[in-house]
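Support reply, case 0932

Customer input (verbatim):
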Amino acid sequence: MPSKKLDFKTGQYVVYPTQGVGKLLRVEEQTIAGQKIKMLVIDFDRNHMTLRVPVDRAEISGLRPLSSAKKMDEAIAAAKGKAGAKRMIWARRAQQYEENINSGDPMKLAEVVRDLQRRSAADTMTFSARQLYLRALERMAQEFAVLHKMDLEAASDKIEDILGVPKEIDLNATEEDDEEDEEPDEEDT
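Our regenerated output:
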């Protein structure tokens, strides 16, 4: 089955599913096991990582160019929708969310953000749910930031503004957190 040839250019931003947005630095030839292989050299500045992907394996690995602004807007609109059914046990849902995050697909990232975002300031989140939400939001924001020429934090804030995530939410609050205000005993002095 013939596959379409992906055409990447040096300096172009690309999305590698498990790492997020990176910049294609160059195409180089490396000799591995006596064979010359063309490699795409991608820099993930945020992760302090450089990845080399064989050109022949780029499509199979899921490497893709950035989404269009229109597709990103559609993904954010999807994240505004009603949360999906929560009929599965948390472990299975968390595994599904992890797979969606690692897919690199903006629509699947939007599903995770949609299902895990807080709808009101009173909502609480478990630690693992918060981590998944923040990873999905960051992956969306990476692409959004490059498309709209802004920094990552501003992109995250903009997405949450569009989604209507309440500002007064303490992302460090969890269902298990029952912090007590500890004051030193004055009797000990």
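We compared this against your earlier run and they match. Two observations from our side: The chain has six helices and five strands. Confidence is low (pLDDT under 50) at residues 176-189. Please reopen the case if you see a mismatch on your end.
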